[in-house]
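chain below, 116 aa
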Amino acid sequence: MPVSDNELAQAVARIAHDLAATLDWDPRRAATFAEEIVGVGVSIDGWDAAWGSYAIKLAEDVQQQLHDTFVDTTWPACPLHPQHPLWLDGEHDRAVWRCTLAGVDIAPLGSLTSST
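prediction:
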């Protein structure tokens, strides 16, 4: 199923919000970073629309890029355990940043804050 322009714009906006809030980036820089990930061709191989949205896949690719390039190897940092990142829970159409050590949801994708 092709991704609509609206779904793509919403995904970029959610991820840009989380980047700006947690990395203290200018919102424009955050949006540009997320859009660049899309521009290089986000891999949607294996993406199953039945378990989640395109926003989840894009956020995972943005997170991987930040980790792989050492821009921030713990993005987004867990507020309970800052030495490790939060991970997206994408089951059942959820898009929630989760602390896997404590097994708790922290915030929905697009809702992180500087204090999260």
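The CA atoms of residues 79 and 115 lie 7 Å apart. The chain has three helices and three strands.
thats it, cya
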